[in-house]
């Protein structure tokens, strides 16, 4: 079963050049056993997903203009989607805990996934 996601989890975008780390602003998460846990909140933005370096999506304005890539500025179009594997329903406040393997989508067509949830000791069975 996928582990729950914590502050600093590694993410990758299908069109990004480099991984980035999940940032959880104060008040947007819960601390459990000394670890800041993430939830499937709907207001994902640049404060949570800063950048994947450069973007090679064919719908990115710079790429459409002929460049091989452009600066990555993720524009998230919805909330996190659950991973394909079954997960335990754990609530963090009013939201469901975010699990490894979850994905969200960028307006430029990229699929952002949690590749390492930084979840040592937080797996729920």
Write up what this structure looks like.
This protein has one domain. Helices cover 3% and strands 23% of the residues. It is built from one helix and ten strands; from the N terminus they run βββββαβββββ. A four-stranded antiparallel beta sheet has the order 2-1-10-9, with no helix packed on it. The chain has a two-stranded antiparallel sheet with strand order 3-4. A two-stranded antiparallel ribbon has the order 5-6. A hairpin with a 2-residue loop joins strand 3 (30-32) and strand 4 (35-37). The longest helix has 4 residues, at 61-64. Residues 121-125 have low confidence and may be disordered.
- Widest beta sheet: strand line-up: 2-1-10-9
Instruction: Output the number of helix runs.
Output: 1
Largest beta-sheet characterization: 4 strands, antiparallel
Shape: elongated
The total beta strand count reads: 10
Give me the secondary-structure topology:
Elements: E1 10-13, E2 20-21, E3 30-32, E4 35-37, E5 54-55, H1 61-64, E6 70-71, E7 91-92, E8 95-96, E9 103-105, E10 111-116
Antiparallel strand pairs: 1-2, 1-10, 3-4, 5-6, 7-8, 9-10
